[in-house]
Amino acid sequence: MDRVNAPEPRGAGVRLRPEIAALPPYRQGRPAPADGFKLSSNENPFDPLPSVAEAVAASASTINRYPDATALALREALARRYGVTADEVLVGAGSVALLAALIQAAAAPGDEVVYSWRSFEAYPGLVTVSGATSVQVPNRADHGHDLEAMAAAITDRTRVVIVCSPNNPTGVVVTAAEFEAFMAKVPADLLVLLDEAYIEFVRDAPGAVDGSTLLGRYPNLVILRTFSKAYGLAGLRVGYAIGPVPILDAARATITPLSVTAASTAAALASLEPAAEAELLERVGVIAERRDRVRTALIAQGWPIPVAQGNFIWLPAGEATAEVAERLFDAGLVTRAFPPAGIRVSIGEEESVDSLLRILGELVPASQEGHPG
Ligand SMILES: Cc1ncc(COP(=O)(O)O)c(C=O)c1O
What we know:
- This protein is an alpha/beta fold.
- The chain folds into two domains: about 25-40 and about 275-360, Aspartate Aminotransferase, domain 1 (Alpha-Beta Complex); about 50-270, Aspartate Aminotransferase, domain 2 (3-Layer(aba) Sandwich), CATH 3.40.640.
- The chain is about 35% helix and about 15% strand.
- It is built from twelve helices and twelve strands.
- It has helices at about 20, 50-60, 70-80, 95-105, 125-130, 145-150, 175-185, 245-255, 260-270, 275-300, 320-330, 355-370, and strands spanning about 35-40, 90, 110-115, 135-140, 160-165, 190-195, 220-225, 240, 310-315, 335, 335-340, 340-345.
- The strands form three sheets. It has a seven-stranded mixed β-sheet with strand order 2-8-7-6-5-3-4, with helices on both faces. A three-stranded antiparallel β-sheet has the order 9-12-11, covered by helices on one side.
- Strand 5 (about 160-165), helix 7 and strand 6 form a beta-alpha-beta unit.
- Helix 10 (about 275-300) runs parallel beside helix 12 (about 355-370).
- The N and C termini lie far apart (about 45 Å).
């Protein structure tokens, strides 16, 4: 088609914020082919627990009503668990909604938000939407956060620092010692967000930071967790933040009201019931064991896989990233490629493991040529 003379699409002349018009929309991974596996979104491969599905079904009888805007019952349950007050808990439609609300509460045009890169792919867009500027501090050679460089990147303009542990997509954890040394350098009026979306999958990582042990210690620290990963509720969108009340109150003002549904809170509460939670955490253990097995096998093949403490592993495939991802796709394995850096592979069904290891075993020599780690 002759695109040069194609008419402008309707609406093209409407004045939008230029930085938003230039922002690519959130890109979801390709769906898995029939008989394939979706290993591209760090989802939980297990089916929902019957008790959780029943709680969601029961919530259907009130869908003509708005949900409780503050999700009080869930906040109270979380508050009891973490030894804080319900006002120190904020529930959102996924932790991504909380990240957005907290960034918007603190950062505006002219301000800066510091985070490690590569990290969660939503951070750059959320910062742009707030009007602030991203300051991306490169990961260390071992794919972990360089917290010293992050502290050094803080200026008078910095309003938020995001720390992600375990880091998506590399899997590396921040240690408690590193985090506390970092917090000692950060001004007390600068908001620090500790994103712990994958904390429940941390095993065998002595000294890994656990934000829940730091609550009440810093006036500027908010931790973020989610029911999407370990608790398998990605489709219902429910996450939570815990931190000082004035910070959460500001986020209560920026967050989209009434976005957490009654079905989401019912599912989250059902997941926190002792028997349900024990089963869910047992599944987390199964996934963590599978992850460690996959990582060990890939390292034996020659892949330089960094520490992996989330429900995914990072393949630093370099220039071969697109080609390796395509080969995996051809074998029915949908992964998340970040060319030219690498590929994030979620740990999914046990049935996906054999083909994953087989394909990657065939690709080690080619993909590692010129990319020694
Ligand atoms: C590091 C990190 N933080 C936050 C999220 C958001 O999760 P949700 O909005 O489903 O709670 C994700 C999702 O992939 C993530 O990887």
